[in-house]
Amino acid sequence: xxxVNGYEQSDNEKQLAIVNLPSLEKQAQAIIPTGGFGYIVxxxxxxxxxxxxxxxxxxxxxxxxALSEIEAPSTATTVFGLDLKTPIMMAPVAAQGLAHxxxxxxxxxGVAAVGGLMSQSTYASTxxxxxxxxxxxxxxxxxxxxxxxxxxxxxxxxEAKKAGVKAILLTVDATVDGYREQDIINNFQFPIxxxxxxxxSDGDGKGKGIGEIYAAAAQKIGPDDVRRIAEYxxxxxxxxxxxxxxxxxxxxxAGAAGIYVSNHGGRQLNGGPASFDVLPAIAKxxxxxxxxxxxxGVRRGSHVFKALASGADLVAIGRPVVYGLALGGAQGVQxxxxxxxxxxxxxxxxxxxxxxxxxxHAPLTHFSYTD
Length: 371
Description:
This protein is of the alpha/beta class. The chain has helices at 24-29, 34-41, 48-55, 103-113, 128-135, 150-163, 181-186, 210-214, 223-233, 245-253, 275-286, 301-309, 319-350, 356-360, and strands at 2-4, 7-9, 61-62, 77-79, 82-84, 88-90, 118-120, 140-144, 167-171, 237-242, 258-261, 292-294, 314-317, 364-365.
């Protein structure tokens, strides 16, 4: 363990023998300090939407396909002009130093090792430049929590461009902090500095709760902000936090180059729908005008398959990767992606789908089961 400001950080570096991703949560809880683990695992209010995110995948079923004459399915795909070995990407999870001493740099190494796509949060524990360097040329996105201070926004965007990121993820569903009871119970304040916040006049986030940090972020975000960021960076801007067809079309009308369907892993508006349940209607409205990224509740290869078959082009995962990071560092992150990819390959074979493009056209059924 590494101790920083009294907080114990894992420094594990090892491959993991993973039975399934849900099993990682309890293993990680045993080594991540209580406050840090509560921040990572918790949702808003009573966690209802958080729980529905995973349960919603039971609302659709994959049709098995026999006599399909395929073998060795490929998970390779091309999205946003990027050639990837997997359609599974890293979600922009904040403050990964809570899980491991090397934080996002180890995550970037693990994601790069599997040929995946990394994204880093504004509230990361490591800098944009350091995370990019750790990826050693592998594609990365930068996620922007837009500040009220546009000089600060421009500074972050300049650093992201200099680091070679391929797109900006603009988060629009976190204009205030969700009511996160785990943080309240634990009186949680960030013990680890947030490298990208050091240019704020009031510090680097250390010693503050997430609500205090969000208070410096913009509460008023609109279509003009999408245009402004796109024009300033000349990079694709992907709007993250879309949960309705109307908002998806509004974002595209503002110049968004991609739509990111997400309810923030159930951490913002509790009582809202599971992300998977709103994905098909959003995909229908978008109608392939721009690519769609999806996250929230993904824990199985079959979940990835169902999301792709429902209109997603990329599927992002968050918490399971952070647990893998705590348990095994970069190698643990790699192990998580490899385990989920393996499940996806099995599902693809049994569903008679050779490629990710085949998965996107695979039929789903919608029987209603009571248990």
